[in-house]
Amino acid sequence: MSTSSTNESSLQSLREAQQETYKVIQDFAKETRQIIQELSEQRKVTEKNIAEISEQHKVTEKNIAEISEQHKVTEKSIAEMSEQHKVTEKSIAELSEQHKVTEKSIAELSEQHKVTEKNIAEMSEQRKAIERATEKAIAEISEQHKITEKSLQELSKQHEEAVKERKETEKVIKKLSKQMGSLGNRFGELAEHLVFPAVVRRFNEIGYNFSFEFAGNCKVRDKNNRIIAEIDAYLENGTTIAVVEVKTKPDVQDIEKHIQRIEKLKQNRREKNEPPKILLGAIAGAIFPKEVKEAAQQAGFYVLVQSGDTMRLEIPAQFEPRKF
């Protein structure tokens, strides 16, 4: 209702402005006609004066010349008045166009008023539909709440059972941890006595001929004697060093860690002013997933896979080892 009142008020204001504009045009036209009438009367007087001056011309030529000049001034004024009249007519035409625009605006406002009333009716229907949907949703939520309460009660019971099972699981984990510790020590011995000799043989078979080998958690220390890295197997000859990481089941993270390990070794040798050598990387594993194997080879690492009681060096076609 407030929108309708505003539109009616706008229409009334436009009508009053239109009437005021029309009145101004009438007054302006009346004044213009009066000016033209006055100029017409002046023209008659001027013509009379010209006749009198013509009679006086026989008496004095000087007076005729002066009156002639005055006549020219008068004609100039008439010309200026004529231009002003044209301007007035142009203003009247512009006001007429504005009047047409005003009438068009009134018509558009009337159409907008109709559209507004239609929108109000549609919004009223939408509000009723929303109220109905809200009532339905509240009823559904109420039912869901009852179901949720029942589920919470069941979950509470399950939680108590889970706590009991967790305590039993913790006992099993402690037992397994103890067994895994023992297994880890045995795998270290396996890497030193089984994996390492096979790794050395495989590299020497492809021409490296390493003259110095070390296995069994080789610690790399900086010039301040701090441990900066640990290496499972270290092979060296006159020009090359191979750094081997041994894992039961390597993963992708082991590849990135091995890259960082070799970079640390390279930096440490530079800081200690040791002779520059080519550093190579290799990863050996008992269980080697295919995607991890391919990722290691793409990173430029040699891959050694357990084969029976020895290790097999897998080198794909066109493989180029990364030289650090």
Give me a quick take on this structure:
By secondary structure, this protein is of the alpha/beta class. 71% of the residues lie in helices and 15% in strands.
Please explain how this structure is put together.
The protein has 324 residues and is α/β, with parallel strands linked by helices. It folds into 2 domains: 2-130; 206-314, Restriction Endonuclease (3-Layer(aba) Sandwich), CATH 3.40.91. Helices cover 71% and strands 15% of the residues. It is built from 4 helices and 6 strands; from the N terminus they run ααβββαβαββ. Strands 1-2-3-4-5-6 form a 6-stranded mixed sheet, with helices on both faces. Helix 1 packs antiparallel against helix 2 (61-205). The radius of gyration is 54 Å and the shape is elongated.
Task: Give the topology.
Layout: H1 2-56, H2 61-205, E1 212-221, E2 227-236, E3 240-247, H3 252-271, E4 278-285, H4 290-298, E5 302-307, E6 310-314
Parallel strand pairs: 3-4, 4-5
Antiparallel strand pairs: 1-2, 2-3, 5-6
Major beta sheet, specifics?
6 strands, mixed
Q: How far is the N terminus from the C terminus?
A: 82 Å
Number of strands: 6
The dominant shape is elongated
Instruction: Enumerate the strands of the largest sheet in spatial order, edge to edge or round the barrel.
Output: 1-2-3-4-5-6
Per DSSP, the total helix count is: 4
Strand content: 5-15%
- The poorly predicted ranges are 175-188
- What series of H and E elements makes up the topology? HHEEEHEHEE
Average pLDDT level: 80
Structural class: alpha/beta
The whole-angstrom Rg is 54 Å
- Helix percent reads over 70%
User: What number of domains?
Assistant: 2
